Amino acid sequence: MSMATSHGLPALAAGDLNRGRQEILRLEGIGKRFPGVIALDGINLDLRYGEVHAVCGENGAGKSTLMKIISGQYRPDSGTIHYLGEQVQFVSISGAQAAGIAIIHQELNLVPHLSVAENLFLAREPKRGPFVDKRKLNDDAKRCLARIGLNVAPSVLVGTLSIAQQQMVEIAKALSLDAQVLIMDEPTSSLTESETIYLFRIIKDLRDAGVAILYISHRLDEMQQIVDRVTVLRDGRHISTDDFASISVNDIVARMVGRSLAEAYPVRQSIPTNEILLGARELRRSGVFGPVSFDLHKGEILGFAGLMGAGRTEVARAIFGADKLDGGTITLRGEAVSIRSPREAIRHSIAYLSEDRKKEGLALAMPIAFNITLANVAGIASSGFLRFKEEARVAQKYVTDLAIRTPSIYQIVRNLSGGNQQKVVIGKWLYRRSNILFFDEPTRGIDVGAKFAIYGLMDRLAAEGVGVVLISSDLPELLSMTDRIAVFHEGRVTAILETKSTSQGEIMHYASGCIHA
Fold this sequence. Notes:
By secondary structure, this protein is an alpha/beta fold. Helix 14 (388-401) packs across helix 15 (418-431). The longest helix is centred in the middle third of the chain and has 16 residues, at 193-208. The termini are far apart.
């Protein structure tokens, strides 16, 4: 007789133990090409009942393409897929879902103007005759949300939720399908530590219930808690598959990028000066933050640390003019300025790279060339007309300088990997020749290779005299890449620490609200 797990999922019964060691899915020789790019080249992969199988690789290694083939979004150009012992080819996402394969996308696949309940059961709404049964829809949604511990009303519009809450809705949506194969693409990228811990409990219960999970994440350190086997891809090819217990994180990194984990951060070359580029004094926004004061020096990388909701992003957005300040003074090179909009901030050579690059940093349906020149159209215009040859020259320069992996500067940005999209956003602000750059979680959801490139770029910018503010929840990142760290707690700066003489413990001490070390 089956036992139930803590989340109400049926666990594997004793008679199912053999099934737990059997394959549910096998891919052989999977190939996929796009114009100018070989995305996958002869990939082999097998997945077993009741296991969590991680797929690792740099951005552009082919992970997401492979998952889209399994889930029916793409068709392979070569190779075979065997599912439940039979050769199959899914021609749509709905076809894969009907067969028991669900995917939780890294890029949220929700409709913002619909409610949480409507998103959870989109195109699967319970009906009473020809009409949607709203009461059953909301009751079913409540059960789905309770299953993952998300305390939001089913009637709330998805667009009003935080990114982390939307990620949890995406997870609840996939779990509602009762899938036999669940694909998780960067499921923790927007979650808090407590939300991640809860998600891992759900994953363990699903595994105990016999569900097979393909797990993609750049957070290699978290995998040891849940992963059984790990496959490494590089440049669209299969490199290795191992039991996770038999391989080190350092070995995984080396196979992914050809560089050890000890070399995850570049050696800093920049040295900050005494010249203050940006001064913030007593900045306030009612009910959000304040008073906040700090200085940013020429050639400095200043870190913003703090727990989620501490006010780091809100302060950056207010300085950039995206949100209104209720009080305080901003000075640039000692001169007081009033910044009432992002346009005015850009005019003052201030740039803000949003943590949500998809929503606030990129025109996803437009090509790379358009995106890179978007913040400085005047630079490629003459007498009111765009100079397309100049646009192409500028775009090619930044594609080369930033090592953006793309077959062409006219590639649609939506089709790039996350790391390459982030580089396009950086290229946009570099072409604008900004003197002050706010990087808000710039390495979230990208691989170690792309991270290394972005770290090197930040250091190079600082060495050229640019002032950089790095907003990050990754304490090793802050300790490796900054000169000083401003620690936030509940909308206030509780300490500004010299990076070379502080520690993770001291940062968390001040982030928790303590004002005495």
